[in-house]
Amino acid sequence: MATIFQNARLVNPAENLDAKGSMKIDDAGIIDRVSIGSPIESCAGDRVIDLAGNVLAPGLFDMHCHFREPGQEYKETLETGSAAAAAGGFTGVALMPNTRPVIDSPLGVAYIRHHSAGLPVDLEVIGAMTVESRGETLAPFGKYCSYGVKAVSDDGAAIQNTQIMRLAIEYASNFDLLVIQHAEDKYLSAGGIMNEGATSTILGLKGIPEIAESITIARDLQLIGWLKKHKLSGPMHEPRYHVAHISTAESVDLVRKAKASGLKVTCEVTPHHFTLCDEELERAIDKGNYIMKPPLPSKENRAALIEGLRDGTIDAIATDHAPHAKHEKECPADQAAFGIIGLETSVGLTLTELVNRNVLSLSRAVELLSTNPRRILGLEQILFQAGCKANLCIIDTERSWIVSDDSFRSKSRNTPFMGRPLKGKATGIFHKGVYIGE
Prior knowledge:
- The protein is an alpha/beta fold.
- It has 13 helices and 18 strands.
């Protein structure tokens, strides 16, 4: 049975496409035909879905997620995390390695691959940079590659030892692996739970100075520049470095200057960092759901993030989907676990805060949510052409909805956006030959 999506707004930045059209997909999940400007004639037995002008885009890809399995399945599992991803319009996600045990060997990668084979979304595995993410001994990068790993990270704990970080960058370059940095000087951030500033002082909460992030990025960029100048030889590729959940003006400026100097540097921002600021904690009753790392930025830093999105310095939007159980958030702020869920609110926040406010075009938003994350990780681009696999997301840009407890497929509910009205929602995906829609 073929599936035909009629009357869609086809948006695919990889092909510079934004036009009204239709798409026919055969029963094997392969695109049979794309028609621009006119509907596709159906045959008996075809499933016809009239999108009535809704967006048909490449399936979204979140390059920064935590599904907690193995080890913390009470927060999230591969199955529930994948359901949340599909509900948010994502057909693929990259999983960070800070599970229990840490994914620091091919065995852990194989576990994820095996248990995700039948899920509706693709799960890429990011391997730990160091054994148990302790920042002391490098993990087996070469063995990772034979299992399809494309990036390494000690997410949640930046490598503090500069010599170990240098070796990690050099080792990754041998295999053309992307280095993803959770930028945090743990000596500056120790004991902090929110941005250091006027609000932290008013609330009497220990702050994290914004230089805890930028000082780490500055060190790494100096290392990369030095390695590029002095050490690129033999099998080494040029280092590729990606800043996770960037959150300060200084960090954005460092990335901007690094790009201008020719370094292969990219970065991502989360919806909660470009939407919220640290002043939210003063008004919040459920302060635990506003506790994350990096902490919510000042208004000035949030403005810099939005400008970084506008001028192209920031390459991707990633959720840092971090599920926690209720008791880990409904507690005093200084005892709350760091992080919030984000897969199912990402599209709504991006459209509401950026597209509907004319910060970004819709095509640019899709690029940040789909095209660029795949490019950064070296994944195959999605094309709307006959003979290509259909990997699609449907977005209703006009859908008004309110974030509510029963709107989530995730196992957890830790979000500061509960009750928030949004405009724009993912309403379905088509992937692996299967249509999942409302």
